[in-house]
Design goal:
With 350 residues, the protein is an alpha+beta fold. It is built from 8 helices and 13 strands.
Length: 350
């Protein structure tokens, strides 16, 4: 019997249709011709409903994250690399080495295959650069008008070495608060693209995988010393919300130095123009650390020696405060409370 001829996907002109999510021949073709070339690795090629992974030598850390950013492409990145970096970083700030990712795609009927390929290729490149494998996934299609091009959910698994314990409940009065670099870059880059705003210089997203920076910091602090207490990536809600989460978990307060918090001049100008506060704007390639005072200088030096931490700063300290307030010493000599974000300053930012 003659085998049916299957015409290759027309990536340049084709679009997603409902058949691509039906689980039949069209679904299989989409996976084989678009997803597999971008994500290819031996574990993914098992081709089963789940991936069989090698046994890990250590405790496992798992995190999951949904990505609904608008627009899908922005200065410095796109939803594809963001989906990798976001989950890799959530695993990394637990002190773990990221190993594997699972990816789920919700595609809207009519979405251009060329744009999907661009996103998937970006995602594959980001995963390879981070040294993680995308080992399993899923694809669904919704009717036109019931999605927004593409939504991506990624789940990451990493391994945590013995003796490493990080958590939001470990900050202690007297500890030092460190920040790896400038804040607000990602949120303002996305907003500028969304609103077609033009600035004198291009503001680019800081999206990046932070696990090598974390490994450097752990080594500087001493992996088993407990001197590195907390690591967080200040994404939605920005630096202010992240620090409030830590003070709530640990039952402490914080005092920040406004002059020490690095903000690019163009980001500060954009925020002033738009009535936004950089402290509450999402970041995708920065981390905040709380560490014991005796380790702060060594950790800060290690951060500054790493490409992703060259602008790292000591921005404050942990205080004994039963009210769990985050306060900031302003440039004008006063103090103000840095409260939780109320509402959503910038929706669809990651």
């Amino acid at each position: 019997m003659k085998k049916d001829y299957i015409r290759p996907l027309d990536i340049k002109h084709g679009r997603i249709d409902m058949n691509h999510g039906a689980g039949g021949r069209a679904s299989a073709q989409l996976i084989e011709e678009l997803f597999l070339p971008a994500f290819d690795n031996p574990l993914l090629r098992q081709g089963n409903d789940g991936a069989t992974l090698p046994a890990a030598n250590g405790r496992l850390v798992m995190s999951t994250d949904g990505h609904v950013i608008s627009p899908l492409f922005f200065p410095g990145g796109d939803i594809g690399c963001l989906a990798v970096h976001g989950t890799v970083n959530d695993v990394a700030v637990m002190g773990a080495t990221p190993l594997y990712l699972a990816a789920s795609f919700i595609l809207e009927e009519g979405f251009a295959l060329a744009e999907l390929q661009r996103i998937v290729q970006s995602m594959g490149a980001a995963a390879r650069d981070a040294g993680v494998a995308i080992v399993t996934g899923d694809t669904k299609v919704v009717e036109q008008g019931k999605g927004d091009g593409v939504f991506i959910t990624t789940t990451g698994v990493g391994v945590l070495p013995a003796g490493v314990v990080l958590g939001g409940d470990r900050a202690r009065p007297g500890d030092v608060v460190l920040l790896s670099g400038t804040i607000g870059d990602h949120g303002v880059a996305v907003l500028s693209q969304r609103e077609s705003l033009e600035f004198e210089t291009t503001i680019e997203s800081d999206t990046a995988a932070l696990h090598t920076l974390v490994a450097t910091m752990l080594q500087a602090a001493g992996r088993d010393s407990g001197a590195l207490r907390v690591l967080r990536d200040p994404t939605r809600g920005g630096l202010a919300t992240t620090l409030n989460e830590i003070t709530r978990q640990s039952g402490v307060g914080m005092l920040l130095d406004e002059a020490a918090i690095p903000v690019r001049a163009q980001v500060e100008a954009a925020c002033e123009l738009l009535g936004l506060d950089p402290l509450y704007i999402a970041n995708e390639g920065k981390l905040v650390a709380v560490c014991a005072p005796e380790a702060a200088d060594a950790v800060l030096a290690a951060m500054r020696a790493h490409p992703l931490g060259q602008q790292a700063q000591r921005i404050g300290s942990v205080t004994d405060d039963p009210q769990r307030f985050v306060q900031m010493a302003t440039r004008f000599g006063g103090r103000r409370v840095v409260d939780w974000l109320s509402g959503e300053q910038l929706p669809r930012i990651c």
